[in-house]
Amino acid sequence: MNTTILRKSVLGIAGLAFAGGLAAGPLNHTTTDTGADAGAVDARSVAVTQADKPAGVDSGKLIPHGVQGAQSRIDLDAEQTANVKAIIAATKKAGLDERAAVISIGTALQESKLENLGHLGDRNDHDSLGLFQQRPSSGWGSPEQITDPEYATTAFLKGLRQVDGWQDMALTDAAQTVQVSAYPDAYAQWEQQAADLVTQHWNS
Description:
The chain is an all-alpha fold. The protein is built from 9 helices and 2 strands, in the order αββαααααααα. The radius of gyration is 16 Å and the shape is globular.
């Protein structure tokens, strides 16, 4: 087992809940903005995003129906940022657009906080691994495959493509249809940060 992954597993990741073999509930090291403060933060982040938006990003595709509920946000380290870029690269390689990247990143934020997780020992439910907490025993791939960010993203996107009308669905509904989480509404809280990350890195 990679020691970096083992080290990551002690970062307060407890109480993972699963249904259908895939991770669900929020991990413990999130920071959530709620109420009026959340609105102010979201307004500022949108303003910054608009001003700094790289050419070629279609902002209308990022959050077509607006965010649902209070939004959470975490600071990313270099490894997490590299995983964001890997998700975006895999999305482009699959021939999908910015909205698919937003859904993928939002899902990975919920499932792993964008950390490429190995087995978490007693805190692991079944055999869930990687950015999307996919299970080898459920046919997602081998442990080596689903802990590869490109492979894991491609597998997630394959599932997403099978969801009729995913392009027009709320992020949490699209993600839930693929992930079958015990917390089907939990993905919604990451939509703004996912959109901001796509805006920042789509052309980087």
